[in-house]
């Protein structure tokens, strides 16, 4: 994480929430380009990253998939769309970001 103010948008329940989170992140970054905007995806929402119509990671926004959830689904990280990173664990990433002062929004 960098010294910029950070906002975490968390999608975990519904695959369609990934599109909502990425769209919200794009608008948030456009309105506040100095923010470090991250979309963290885990649980059933991971299927939204694996869909044929998965949204691309917008410029200035980090989209991260939970590696634990990918392993549970038998999905290799290289199956993710270009620009999507993995994070070792969504819960740990969210807690670490919040402890460092990040704002949290559940989508």
How would you describe this structure to a colleague?
The protein contains four helices and five strands; from the N terminus they run βαβαβαβαβ. The protein is an alpha/beta fold. β1 (6-11), α1 and β2 form a beta-alpha-beta unit. It starts with 5 loop residues before the first strand and ends with a strand.
Key attributes of the depicted protein:
alpha/beta, 5 strands, Hypothetical Protein Ychn, Chain: A, five-stranded parallel beta sheet, globular
SSE map:
Blueprint: E1 6-11, H1 16-31, E2 36-41, H2 46-50, E3 61-66, H3 67-73, E4 84-87, H4 90-99, E5 103-106
Parallel strand pairs: 1-2, 1-5, 2-3, 3-4
Q: What value does the Rg take, in angstroms?
A: 13 Å
- The helical percent reads 25-40%
Q: Helical element count? A: 4
* Secondary-structure element string: EHEHEHEHE
As laid out across the biggest beta sheet, the strand order is: 4-3-2-1-5
Which class in CATH terms? Alpha Beta
Biggest beta-sheet profile: 5 strands, parallel
Question: Which fold name corresponds to the CATH topology?
Answer: Hypothetical Protein Ychn, Chain: A
In one word, what is the shape? globular
Number of strands: 5
CATH superfamily: DsrEFH-like
Which stretches of 5+ consecutive residues score pLDDT under 50?
A: none
- The class by helix and strand makeup works out as alpha/beta
Beta-strand residue fraction: 15-25%
């Amino acid at each position: 994480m960098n010294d910029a103010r950070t906002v975490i948008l968390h999608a975990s329940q519904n695959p369609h929430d990934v599109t909502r989170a990425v769209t919200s992140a794009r608008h948030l970054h456009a309105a506040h380009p100095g923010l470090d905007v991250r979309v963290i995806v885990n649980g059933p929402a991971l299927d939204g990253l694996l869909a044929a119509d998965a949204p691309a990671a917008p410029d200035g926004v980090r989209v991260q998939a939970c590696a634990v959830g990918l392993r549970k689904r038998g999905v290799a990280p290289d199956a993710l769309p270009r620009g999507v990173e993995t994070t070792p664990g969504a819960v740990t990433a969210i807690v670490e970001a919040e402890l460092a002062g990040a704002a949290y929004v559940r989508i």
